Amino acid sequence: MNRMESLAGRPWPRAVTDTALALLLTAGCLALPLAMPHGGPDLRATDAQWGVLVLLTTLPLAVHRLWPLPALLVMSAAAGVLQARHYVPDLSGPDGTSIGPTYLAVATAVFLTAARTTPRVAALVGWVLIPAAAVTEAVLAPSGHRVAALLTEAVLLIAAWALGRLARARAAIRDQALERAAALEREQAADARAAVMAERARIARELHDIVAHNVSLMVVQTIAADRVQDRDRDKAHELHGAIEETGRATVTELRHLLDVLRTDEEGPGDPSREPPQPTVEALPALVDSVRAAGLRVDFSTSGEPVELPAGSHLAVYRIAQEALTNTLKHAGRTRTALDLAWEPERLTVRLCDDGPASDGEPVRPPVAAHGSGHGLVGMRERVGAVGGSLHTGSRPGGGWCVHAVIPLPVPEPRHEGHSA
Fold first, then answer.
1. Does residue 260 sit in helix, strand or coil?
2. Structural contact between residues 293 and 327, judged by C-beta atoms closer than 8 angstroms
3. Is 346 in contact with 401 (CB distance < 8 Å)?
4. Which of 218, 222, 271, 415 is least enclosed, having the fewest CB within 10 Å?
């Protein structure tokens, strides 16, 4: 059914399919008298009544999609009258079996009705109309050929009916599979969104601690600057500079947090915007802790470190922590290299392992190209929150790599006061 109503994988509208079939069968029925061989069965000459009956046998197929059962009944009745009036050859007679376009039109209508209608209507066709048509065919057949005519008509129509029900069943299975796939996709999207929301809530709590600390520090520094204003102007100036730097860092962290919260409803396409707590300086202790768990880690740094915002500090630490944890969990006690490269405008964090260890550790499960695990979601959120990028994937020679790029802050020029 699906294949018959499609071309190059694109479904045809039912109106086009039905109309094309009706016209094709009409042409076949109209051409039948011309195709009859000389000396064939003795048939009635064609006339206006023959033309009307031919049209009633075929053209209702054009509106079958709207009224399937009435169209089938009209076509069957007209085909029966054509045979009763001897306008068409007998289905089974002295000259053998003859399945012409008239019978094919009825069989096509039976097929479409079985494929398109409800089980109740299809059962009515199978248990009532087909036996009635077979008995009618046997009654109209010449003496001595009635059993053959009954069996031929029954086999023809039952085969068409069975094919129609099979097409209906396959279409139902296909629709159910598509619905299950759509439901699974919606469930996966909801799970991914829930993971992102949970990670954002956790990051927001961490940022709250950072911002609260910075604001408290600014308050303390402001009180201290006010107290030494008159006694030590240089010290007061130094405190005001510290307040300014702390304020800039706090504003940066708040901007990251607001970006995360504001992009919540912008769409599911880009789940990568998140912020940060321990610092880069805590990485050696982290490496020592995973080494104690059995992971062989080669830790190296290159370049000249610079001061990072608190959010970037935490992002680097959490990325390394998550990557090391994943390696230990999925690859076992394998060899791992953690490299920090300080470059003029960015900090590159790269962690690569050699793949599952050979001591019976579990093998890393497959991960989607963009990451579907909650750990990868969290890393992408953190990197995106500080304006960086994250790439993960398997190595050609075996193993797994996590490659994160964190942009370094650009120093803002200080504006000195202008003297008059």
1. helix
2. no
3. no
4. 415
